[in-house]
Design a protein that fits this description.
326 residues; 11 helices; P-loop_NTPase; five-stranded antiparallel sheet; ATP binding; 14 strands; alpha/beta; elongated; 27% strand; six-stranded mixed sheet; binds adenosine-5'-triphosphate
Length: 326
């Protein structure tokens, strides 16, 4: 489907904030997703992906901020049949066959796709006559997928859609999703996997500790994840001086150990050795996504009231940090 110029974005979140008791799960998220975009919400456990998705779907009321879906409130958009969702939790209904679950979902939408077509497209047809409660985890996910698609919604919101799905099932899933994206639908999905986000999304929004810590095309986010770090024992040198070394983007100190995050680890290592002969126990590590998450989260240690006390800090108490980039 095509959208006229000036049409409202698929999703607009402004200042979205949500806490559960003392845990600030989402802290002022601003996010605009153009109609027709495919966006991955990527982040580690507890980053706030599901909380953001639940707010987008009107399943939970934010403490502050607004949610707009195609210029309407979430509940208006859902009532108008504009949204299809695939959530992590939720049991299949009892006493219904798989086909009936999908038929029931179709009945909620003004212009659903033919049920049989969707059953075949999603690979659900082969077990459509089974009881919906008697399925494997992966099959159950596929039924949720069929239910999300059958209403032919303009916005698809998928929370970790391939969790529990085997490799073949994942490939089929993403093949169908590519087709849906080609039809101009807006797609938002949450995932832990950079590879999945990279393969499928136009844009990756990286969440950590309830905030957006990076937002851009997959290539940009991959570059962040590719950051290498140098560890060394080097007492009595200020982190600010280490951050100034060529190839270094940030430096942290933990006791006598310094950790340098590097855009160019080779150049940084040479500069470190020539500038600080006392540096020893050198170690160069390839950047993992987890490290990138942690690095990007470091500058979120602002001690704002309500910071989730239950969430452990990635930086040891008393650690000194300088020049952390985001
Ligand atoms: N119903 C709830 N009650 C209390 N705390 C909650 C609840 N739901 C989420 N949280 C907390 O809010 C924070 C964000 O959780 P959320 O589920 O949004 O993260 P996520 O990025 O989806 O994580 P995951 O990848 O593990 O699903 C976490 O600290 C989590 O423990």
């Amino acid at each position: 489907m095509s959208f006229p110029d000036g049409a409202p974005p698929g999703v607009r979140l402004v200042g979205l904030t949500k806490s559960y008791g003392r845990v600030l799960a989402v802290r002022g998220i601003d996010l605009t997703i153009g109609a027709g975009q495919t966006v991955a919400l990527l982040g580690p456990n507890g980053a706030g992906k599901s909380t953001t998705i639940d707010a987008m779907l009107g399943l939970s009321r934010p403490d502050a901020g607004t949610v707009e879906i195609f210029g309407r409130t979430a509940s208006e958009a859902i009532r108008a049949g504009l949204v299809g969702a695939m959530l992590q939790s939720g049991q299949q209904p009892e006493y219904l066959r798989v086909r009936e679950v999908v038929e029931l979902t179709a009945s909620y939408y003004p212009r659903p796709r033919p049920v049989q077509e969707v059953l075949e497209l999603t690979g659900v047809a082969e077990f459509a006559d089974r009881w919906a409660t008697r399925l494997s985890g992966g099959q159950s996910q596929l039924v949720r997928f069929a239910a999300a698609l059958v209403g032919d919604p303009d916005l698809l919101v998928l929370d970790e859609p391939t969790a529990a799905v085997d490799v073949a099932g994942r490939n089929d899933f993403w093949r169908v999703m590519r087709e849906v994206a080609r039809q101009g639908k807006t797609i938002v999905f949450a995932t832990h996997y950079l590879e999945e986000a990279d393969a499928f999304a136009d844009r990756i929004v990286l969440l950590a500790r309830g905030r957006i810590v990076a937002d851009g095309p997959a290539t940009e986010i991959k570059a962040l994840a590719g950051t290498r770090t140098i560890r060394a024992t080097l007492p009595e040198v200020e982190t600010g001086r280490l951050t100034a070394l060529p190839g270094v983007t940030s430096a942290q100190r933990h006791g006598e150990t310094v950790i340098l995050s590097c855009a160019d680890a080779d150049t940084a290592l040479r500069a470190l050795l020539s500038g600080y002969a006392a540096a020893r126990d050198l170690e160069v590590r390839g950047g993992s996504l987890e490290e990138a998450f942690l690095e990007l989260t470091d500058d979120q240690q602002d001690g704002a009231p309500g910071d989730p006390a239950e969430v452990p800090s990635p930086v040891a108490d008393g650690a000194e940090t300088a020049g952390v980039n985001s």
